[in-house]
Amino acid sequence: MDESSGRHGSDSGSDRYQRYAALRLERPREGVLEIVLDNPGRRNAVDAAMHAALADIWVEVDQDPAVRAVVISGAGEAFSAGGDLDMARRIHDDEQWRLRLYRETRDLVHNMVRCSKPVVSAIEGPAVGAGAAAALLADISVAGESARIMDGHTRIGVAAGDHAAIIWPLLCGMAKAKYYLLTCEPLTGREAERIGLVSLSVPDGSVRERALAIARDLAGGPQPALRWTKSVLNGWLQQAAPIFDASVALEMLSFTGRDAVEGIDAVRERRQPRWPSAGPGSDW
């Protein structure tokens, strides 16, 4: 146990979490589970193993009587740089892989929404794509003032599926949601709080501490009242479930097209994309 850092060490709590080795799990406070996105050297990009774990762990958390609140954070100076580009390209090439990612993407969102335990996200540095999904679907989101939040789907030539259609319009309104989802312009934590995309913006370096303090208070609070309040508020998200399901289907369909190949290659090669659908002779 390392009291100086406020961590109680890496701890699965029981054998129930052994299958989630792609995520680092901590028990920083009584009744609090911290899920850490930790992909060293890649700014915590969500690879295949992490994506699968993020889809399923919320069911386990919901059933774990030792957990009363959750913090989700990123290791080091990033929350998550988004989805792994190799994984994204494989969606184009492999039908079975595409179907697997379709299921996992739906499960990540639906399972987070259905999880009865309150979830607090601690957002520092970049939060993009699948990382942004987990960050913004949290019940309470705490972002550093200079955090960079972005939905990067249209940047790689695919529809904004993932979490975007279900949560952005409810958080910040349709006008802002359309602007940021169509342009992929990043937001700082300070701007995200101003438009209502995150709950709080706090000084850089104090994000995890604030998130843990909130989770500690929630873990010590009246559990039925907190969980039932979350449940009824998430009724708004449940109403939007058909919209979300359609967005994920269109995202996966987008991955089969030429724009997705060009978009992924352009990001990898750090150049401006030349979209086939916007070129001469396109019927779009």
CATH topology, by name, is 2-enoyl-CoA Hydratase, Chain A, domain 1
The 3D shape can be described as globular
CATH level 4 superfamily:
2-enoyl-CoA Hydratase, Chain A, domain 1
Strand element count: 9
Helix run count: 12
Strand order of the largest sheet: 1-2-3-4-6-9
Q: Give the second-level CATH assignment, the architecture.
A: Alpha-Beta Complex
Estimate nothing, just give the exact number of structural domains: 1
What is the end-to-end distance?
A: 59 Å
Radius of gyration: 18 Å
- Percent range for β-strand residues: 5-15%
**Sheet bearing the most strands, described?**
6 strands, mixed
Mean pLDDT: 92
The ordered string of helix (H) and strand (E) elements is EEHEHHEEHEEHHEHEHHHHH
- Proportion of helical residues: 40-55%
Q: pLDDT below 50 for ≥5 consecutive residues: which ranges?
A: 1-12
Short description:
The chain has 284 residues and is α/β, with parallel strands linked by helices. It has 12 helices and 9 strands.
What are the defining features of this structure?
single chain, 284 residues, alpha/beta, 2-enoyl-CoA Hydratase, Chain A, domain 1, 3-stranded mixed β-sheet, 12 helices, 14% strand
